[in-house]
Amino acid sequence: MCTGKCARCVGLCLIPLSLICIVANALLLVPNGETTWTSDHLSLQVWLMAGFIGGGLMVLCPGIAAVRAGGKGCCGAGCCGNRCRMLRSVFSSAFGVLGAMYCLAVSGVGLRTGPKCLMNGKWSYHFEDTEGAYLLNRTQWDLCEEPPNVVPWNVTLFSLLVVASCLEIMLCGIQLVNATIGVFCGDCRKKEGTPH
Length: 196
Fold this sequence. Notes:
Layout: H1 3-28, H2 44-47, H3 50-69, H4 83-113, E1 117-119, E2 122-124, H5 150-185, H6 188-192
Antiparallel strand pairs: 1-2
Helix pairs in contact: 1-3, 1-5, 3-4, 3-5, 4-5
C-alpha cells in the first residue's frame, strides 16, 4: 500500500476515535446524564480531561495531518512526493502517541480507583482499596448512593476511553512509521500515475 493511501486510511480512523474520546469525557462530567453534580462530587480522573485533551484534541491533529498527508503534494501536483506533509505527519503522530498514552494512563487509573461517590454519608473513593476488584463484583456497584448509577456510568465510559486510546496508540504508531517512510521514499501514487 502506498504511504499516501495508508496515511489517509489511518487519518480517517483517528478522527472518529478522537471525537469518541471527547464525547466520552464530556459524558463523564454529567453522571447519569445529570448536570447537578459539582467538582466535589466527581473524581480527579474526570477533571484531568484525558479524553478531551489527550485522546481527543492531541489525536485529532495527527488525524487531520494524516488525511492531508494522503492528499496531493505541497505544490498541488505531488512534485515533492508529499514529503513535506509526511514530515509534518511524523511530528503530529508522535504528539498523538503522547496524547493517547496520557488518555490510557488516566483512564486506567480511573477504572482501577473507581468513582467518587456518596456511601454511608461520606463522599470518597470507596473502591480505591479494592485495586479494581470491584469491577468484577457488580453487587458493590449499588452501594454508591449518589450520583445515581455512577459506577456503571464511569466503568462504561472509562473502558471506552481505554479501548479508544489503545487503538489510537496503535494507529499513531503505524502512521509514525508510514510517514517516516513517506519522508524518505515519497508517495508511490505519483509513480503509478494515479489521479489525485
